[in-house]
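Exam review. A common question shows you a sequence with its structure tokens and asks you to describe the fold in words. Practice with the pair below. Do the first one on your own.
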Amino acid sequence: MLVLSLVTSIGVVGFRAVTDRQDKNQALGNLFIVRDAQRRYASLNDSYTPTPTDLRAIPANLTVSDAPSTNKNSVSMAVGSRGTLALASLSENGCVTLQVPPLSGPLSRQTEQRDSLPISVLCDARSALPSGEYQQTPGPPSDALVLSKSSEISSDSQSALNSGSLSDFADLGLGVSDEPDSSDPAVLSHDGEQYLYIPNQSGNYVSTPDSIDASPDGDIDVRACISPVSWSSQQVLVEKQGSYTLSLTSSGALRLSVTSGGLSSTLTSSTTVSLSPLQRGCVRVSLDADNGSGAATASFFASPSGVSWRGLGSPVTTSPSISIDNTSSPLVLFQASTGFSGRAHSASVLVGNTVRVSFDARDCGQTVCISASGESYTITRSSSGLKAAVVDRDMLLFDGLDDLASVAHSSTLDIGPLESMTVVAAVRFHGPISSQCPIVSKRETDSASFSGSNYAGWTLYINSLAKAASSIYDGSLNRTVSAGSSISYSEPLAAVLLRVGASGATGVQQDGSRAVSIDGALSAPAGIAVPVEIGKLGSLYCPMEFYGVAIYKRDLSISEVNAVYQYLRS
């Protein structure tokens, strides 16, 4: 009767508010439990730990992990690069978060911050870290056979260091030989600043639609900062077709072409840009469309950073004065089909000292870049071969034509009867994928068949439905399992092959979701004398951004896979 009276007096809505508040308070209380456990750990170790198993006195009914929270009795935990502790727990009406300042440093003077995330997003502690502070993750399990990531490439040896137990001979080798050739994936290093890589493959470029700001009709100042494969080859940097073009000539001179009244005028610097291949530099041309003498004058400049400029020879004059034609063409930057190849950093169009449009690769997502001046730039990628890449970390870029990497054969990397294995690959795809795309394989084959059972081994791949899939073959039987949903193009992906020998289970994991199939009759025998191949199976090749691979001779939990994946992408 007391409960009924309470509901009657405050109403159903009010009662629900009370229970929601109680649920939120319980979730917040669990965050305090984990915070206090972290403080006890820090009193002995001088820092917070990203490893949940390091914590003591956690109640048995409370789960602490580095994965997103799924209910009020689970806490997601992350430690940021500057020492901030972030916690999150899912309640009935949203995700409750707690941000705890680091023990030392400039952020240590801040106060704890309680907040919440909408229920529509993952309740992940990483989302509660301060802006710009990335997560410090627990290291991967130490019993890896192969643990190679693209950030540890040695250009001298054409290989990536293997930190696993097979490290004496099983480094990740690039291409088909120890010498650089066309079968090597492109090695893209991240030097602390994000950039856009434009490979020499037609179809890669950046563009923004026609606008008034991109269409000056008189004075114009056009600039670009690049690290090209060559400074002395014909290449277009900035172009509004039918209006103006900034380019480099085959000798390394800077050139401005403008169209006025349907007639084209070309002005070229009298000296060249003297920089080495892939050396960063900025170029600029400033056009005085009417110099007061019935003519137009172009002044050319170069700079190492785009801050201070030096002249490239004397100004160049043409008659008569110029009025640039206004066309509806988009503004296109760094178009591979016009010769550009390399790193693109920025480009801008000014009138006087006023920036009209500006592109900066640091403002790019994977498909769109939003500039400080508000315009949107679209990254267009080639339909075949190497695709443009936003380089936000070290990576290998596979062209899907003949690029591959491999790890030397070891019988330890085969799956014998009743043996278990986990293969984790950190990759990204910029679709579409319409046929099988092999990520990691160790399989006898003289064809590219994924469904046949005549050849023994295993394969982790993306199938023709754009789903992560794994296949185990024993020479007479095969078991193939695919994920329940398609991958998200342009998003990083954890693709995982699983084999649990004792139960005969074959599985695949796509990010945090697993699919498993049981087949006790299937047994993939050891002794397959072929290497582990990355990006290739038979005659099939896979276009992808590749961050690393790990192979374990046991079945890893989802949280262990997450730790491995974060390590491979670090």
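Now try the second one, then compare your answer with the model answer below.
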Amino acid sequence: MAISANQRFTRGNACPICAGFESARRGQQTRCHGFLSSDGEYAHCTREEYAGTLRQETNGQTFAHRLVGDCRCGVRHDPSPPPTVTTGAHKPRISATYDYRDADDTLAYQVIRKNPKGFSQRQLDVNGEWVYNVQGVTPILYRLPQVLAADHATPVYITEGEKDADRLAAMGYIATTNAGGANKWREEYAESLRGRHVVILPDNDDPGREHGEKVARSLLAVAASVRVLTLPNLPAKGDVSDWLAADGDAAELDALTKAAPLVDARFAPKGDNEHPANTSSTSFTLTRLADLLREPVEEAEWVVKGILPTAGTSLIVAKPKVGKTTLVRNLALDVSRGNRFLNRETKQGSVIYLALEEKRGKVQEHFGSLGATIADQAPLFVHVGSAPQNPMAQLRTLIDRHHPVLVIIDPLQRFMRLKDGNSYTEVTTAMEPINDLARESGAHIVLIHHANKNSYGGGDSVLGSTGFFAGVDTLITLRDDRGRSIETTQRYGDDLSETALLFDVATGRVTLGASSEEGQQHEVAGAIRAVLRKGTQDETAIRKAVGGDQRLTSKELRVMFESGEVTRSETGKKGHPYLYSLAMPDDKATQQDSMLDGRFFPKGNTDHRASGDVFADTNEEMATWVG
């Protein structure tokens, strides 16, 4: 592109952005090699300190400022005298200075802020005079001595400007920034933050978000942790100073910081091996297997022994009206009181229960039916109603205040507000801060969710993405296809096989009955007894008469023989198979069947075997509480 002499900035036709021109003396902050566009709508200024978020033109030297209307540098340049007659007489005045000091607290250079808005950098020469350039100076982070002196456990906030960093520092935070603002981050800055917990506060515009991602990528390989905190309710182009001015405070900032998701390799470009996923370590640590085996075995701690680990998460899924809400309210009461739950020991402590979709009166009535009274001093804290605007931050505040051992979120969808529950990326991103909160606080967090309509068992029973199942330590599935039952799939401890879930009519409390395997064994044993009451039989005849799974029949027959319940004769060799008989009189065998029925079939329902409903509820009225 040809530039005419009339377009060049001169003493009599100075740059309308920096008031500089090409023939100005060096070192006086008035030299500009730019020009006006041929249509007069843009001033191509070469001074980077006035560029704001403008990007350098493809000619590699100038920044194109719009002279009419809004300019992306952040300053509106009209109304003003026509650019062709602007002179150097009206220079911007300095409104603030920001000292950049090195690790020894020696002034390295200074950023100055001008009014109208603009920035430039300067350093002192050997004579103590200001020179308006930073040639020969090593770029450093703002407030570097304070960053280096801070405890490594203290988070370091990275803002997009010195004003914001100073505002946070005045509140007692460790804060820093880089000269030049957005898109001026240098890779060498990262080393000063090695091993630090970093929180990036991007401005609310595209350049700010791009800058935040660039900083995050730079720090992934060196920082102990990296979080990008998008402040809520920021105006367009707003920053942390705007947020604080709009009644933001330290307590909320702390809560938002803890709730902000950790940055991982999603910020790194594909194929970028220089920035691996963020971890608390900067390298792999190898341990010889023999040494690993010598280490003491870490004992698991439980909120509910064998099912709900401390500092863990669980997901309870079921179809509507099967018993999720009744189960977790029993759980909440038992943990807060230190009572056993499902025949297992509990860790007594505070409980937070978030009832996010029921009316207050219904919650009150239900807990009352479970035995809670106004005299109950158990530390159980209940929220009834919708989730607040920033649920993770608010939940973290509650946990910091009450130190619960158990948190129940009922239901999960009302808390997460996911747009697409089938999206693995969206689900795992939403689950991550919940898991972080559980690990950091030591509480177990129970999440209530829905089951698929057409499948049961394991992760396939969970409605939506597999990210729900993958993100928890324990999956608890409730079923009602053969009466109400419960089963677990666990990362820690042994899975609980399908077991009857019994609701006490008088108290509304939930207990465990027999497992489905035990129920099957009992049914087979009863069938074997019925066959042998007719007389001595060999194993082939017994299996044929009982039907069903012949391996289970053979197994139960041997158990009954070893226990002495049946006897056998003959050698068991070819042509002489074992012959089995009942070892007790027929009336005693009938009595044993009757006693075992009381264990495997809930009392008050005598037709369960005929109907196949081994796990049926015992009272229709209870169904109103099963949700």
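Model answer, second protein: Residues 80-89, 265-282, 594-627 have pLDDT under 50 and may be disordered. The CA atoms of residues 314 and 472 lie 5 Å apart. Full marks require stating both points clearly.
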